[in-house]
């Protein structure tokens, strides 16, 4: 139960009757880190968390806490705390008894159990609700109980499985700050699973993006945001414009690409060959509308759909060559408007198209050269 | 068509609407007529036993000549009912306890886990409920006699376990399924071992299910005729078997004292039924089909 | 040295979902093997070891003796119509009653009574109620519907009625719970599309209910097929209600010919399983997925 300085996962894998849910996860967690496992549903992130917790036996690999091998230990002997998506509070126990449960299991003296429970209750500000049953609490309060229950016995590692996904938008933001605050003030080491890239970016020190059970990229939020490792990660990190294309010219790190009737200049990401098939990725907010100055990657387009989103508008436009394009702008535009668009070549990322893309389920996110969504 | 699709919004929607129209339909009267006819006959069946047990002499008249309670005293003596009732209770309590001990852990594994051969195991547990008791009761009794286990109480208890354990498994499974498995995971993450999870978390949450299946097994065991009949010896008859013997040997004893015994059996079952219905709904007494949540 | 293969095995087993928790199944498995499978196969082998003759001579003996062979038809002639009537009568009544109405709980509770009482007590009541001097015949006579008492006990009809009295409530409660498992908005949706109640029933509800009806029929049939006490008590056990379970019982407990009794029990189980397999085979032709109910 003692704190560790490093937790290492070596080739951790989990198969379910011939189906690979998680393949060869290698990860080193330093004490005090906040790590987010990120990916779409079914990517293996929850499997990874459950393997780490000991709730799911591995089918290959090992887990080491410093020099001690722990993947053979049952969950109750690893000394980790866990917060569940559905809170998983004991419905027959009061808030106080729920929080004290972990201390009771460790057979701490009564006095200490009482003191530390009260402390945890204060920490999550539930002083007025200690004698209630979980069913009498709101979703946010239940989540606070779940967090208090997981941290009260000072676990060496706290695991969180999409803890905010059952909350409404406003509460989610509040609890996000709360979780980050607890992580810092208690000096916790946290592994956090989520499918929400914004949540992961704002909380974590390091992100692990998973897809189909495999690690796609491990890095800091900034790296993830600006330089996704492949177009799948880009897709997941909010690059909504993904177009097929073909390399026309390579010039160091710059590539010129022909895509659906446009010649685009962008940043080459990874190993590109001349004439190779590529995927071009652009964030909607990096598409400039009638911007002054920027003239590279210019195209004219017609606005088709506009969504009001507060300070900004999100819009779909179709270029004169027929390519559909997502953009965000603070300018006032309306459906039918003719606009000039431009994209900074530094914000236009060119990825090699992978071999699996024809059978790939997310290839429907790609638009082909005819410009119509496939 | 307006009558079908339109209900004024101020009223509760369709169910009320449907019920109101049912009353107006002649088919509804037929349905209710059949139900009432059925209940009248049922009442006749039960009441004729009851009236007869209090009748001094009843022959070819609407009602007996006079009334007496003396048949009950006679039945009590003649059939050694005290001993029979004690045996019945002992057998039932043993069967309930054992079938819960065997059935609940199995129900837990079957509800929670998937593993090779699970469907086969589930089918094997279902078979004793799908087969008529006489079919497997005769070979079972033969085996039990071979090992000297039949003809006494252990045989009766063992035989009655055969349908009871699957029954517990079937009753408990939905109760276990409705507990979020992550609650158990949470307990383990808090440092509770398997045993503690069972005793401190699962058992308190399963109390309603355990009560329900206990009472259901109790009712079935007290009412179980065939298996007890095949395995009981003279000292290990339950009430329903004693009743059968006294009926098939009628002529030796007055009809009314058999009726008195039947009434004693009936009242015992009705008490159990009233208790049972506090914990389960009527459909559960019949089979494990999910019931609508209105009760 | 054994560390590596051990880890390997643990990983292999983990992939298939096998771990220590499965030991919780052990008591139930031991129980079902010792008290159900072993006796069953013991009976099966015993049936091929007759007291004299070749391995199949007991089966041959059963089928060559018309008195014995006919017990199959006698049983089916009682059980099939009774089960069919119970299920068919239950459908319209349950369809009327599936909504909420005052007294629904009372009706269902009353219906549980005959199931709880069981066949022995029902038999006793029927003897009193339907007998030549019972209330039923008295009503018929006093209303001049008949000139002399109708014979309803100690024959086919006595057994049939006893199966209806215990079987109908059973079927009704099952059908009712299957019906409440069908999302009522489906019928409302059909109504908005212009279907009248008749077509809503035949096109939407009935197809969704069919699998449930098949299951209900099977369970009701199992009950009726194993009819034993009422066949003896209100039937004519030497003649028209000599059912197959009675033949098995007599072989075992009156002739003490256990191989022959086992052979009859096996035949009985086989016939029953054939009928059930036929019904379940037909059932699989219907849609058996979720019916969208809240149950």
From TrEMBL, chain B:
It is a multi-pass membrane protein. InterPro entries: MetI-like, MetI-like_sf. It is found in: Cell inner membrane; Cell membrane. The keyword DNA damage does not apply. It comes from the Bacteria. The chain crosses the membrane at residues 27-54, 80-108, 120-145, 157-176, 197-219, 258-280. Residues 85-276 form the ABC transmembrane type-1 domain. Its main location: membrane. Keywords: Cell inner membrane, Cell membrane, Membrane, Transmembrane, Transmembrane helix, Transport. Belongs to the binding-protein-dependent transport system permease family. This is ABC transporter permease. It comes from Micromonospora parastrephiae.
